[in-house]
Amino acid sequence: MNTPQLSVVIPVYNEEEGLQTLFDRLYPTLDNLGISYEIVFINDGSRDRSAAILREQFQRRHDVTRVILFNGNFGQHMAITAGFEHARGARVVTLDADLQNPPEEISKLLAKMDEGYDYIGSIRKQRNDSWWRHMGSRTMNRLRERITNIKMTDQGCMLRAYDRPLIDAINSCKEVNTFVPALAYTFARNPAEVMVEHEERALGESKYSLYSLIRLNFDLMTGFSVVPLQWFSMAGIAISLMSAFFVVFLLVRRLFVGPEAEGLFTLFAIAFFLIGLTLFGIGLLGEYIGRIYLQVRHRPRYLIQAVLDKTE
C-alpha cells in the first residue's frame, strides 16, 4: 500500500449543517497541492446526521476518504488521537470541521515544514470570536505558559501540522486525558508557528462552553506540569511563617496591652481565608489524584463502531 504524503485529520461532532461546505472547499484545495493525500474524518458520537453525511462522502470519494465512527462522544482530543493512530501520511495536518480555520491555509503549514521544521502551530491573524473567548484565551495562554513552559501563541487553533516521527511518538502515549498540541510540543525537535486566516463560524454553534474551556485548560495545566502543586506548597510554607509571626505578635500585644476583643472579626477573616485556601489545595490535589485514577483503570480511551476504508 502506498503511503500518502499527507493525511488530514478532522474530528466531527454535530456538524451536519457545514459538512458539505467543508467538502466543497477541502477536496479542491488538496487536489491542487499536487501530492498524494488522504482525509481521515472521525465522527465523535454526533447526534445529528453527520455520520450519514460522512458515509455518503466516503462513497463519493472513497479513493482519498476514510471515516472512523465512534461508539459515543469521547471528546475532540480523543478523536484526534484516533485519527493519528489510523493516519498513514508522512505528514499529518489537523483541521476543525467548522471552517473557522480555512482549509486553503494548509499549504502555508506544509511550506513551513519544507524549511526543516517538524511541528507547525498556527496563529489566528484576526480572531472572529466573542470578546470573552478572546480575552479568556489570552489570559489562559499566559498562565499556561508560565506553568507548563509550553510556548504556544494560540493554543485554541487546531490547524497544525505534524511530521511522522512526531505522530509515532504521540501514538506511543496512552494517556486518558491529554491535549494533543501540547503533547506534540514536548516531543518536537524544531517547532515553529505561522500566521493563518480565521473565519467566523457560518453554520452550527461552538461545541465549547465557558465551563468546557475552563475544564480543558485545567486539564492542560495539571496534565503537563506539577507547578500548581509546588506553588501551593510554597504558599503553605509562606502562610505558616506568617501565622507564626502573627502568634508571636498577638502574644506580645497581650502582655503589653492586655486582652481585647476588637480584633475578633479580623481573626474570623483570616480563618475564612485559610479555610478557603485549604479547600482549594484539596481540590487541586484531587485533580492530580483523579488523573491517576482515570489512568490506572485501563479502560479503553474510545470505542470505534466502524471504520470506512476501501481496504477494510
From TrEMBL:
Its EC number is 2.4.2.53. Keywords: Cell membrane, Glycosyltransferase, Lipopolysaccharide biosynthesis, Membrane, Transferase, Transmembrane, Transmembrane helix. InterPro entries: Glyco_trans_2-like, Glycosyltransferase_2, Nucleotide-diphossugar_trans. Gene3D superfamilies: Spore Coat Polysaccharide Biosynthesis Protein SpsA, Chain A (3.90.550.10). The keyword Iron does not apply. The keyword Transmembrane applies. It comes from the Bacteria. PANTHER family: UNDECAPRENYL-PHOSPHATE 4-DEOXY-4-FORMAMIDO-L-ARABINOSE TRANSFERASE, UNDECAPRENYL-PHOSPHATE 4-DEOXY-4-FORMAMIDO-L-ARABINOSE TRANSFERASE-RELATED. This is Undecaprenyl-phosphate 4-deoxy-4-formamido-L-arabinose transferase.
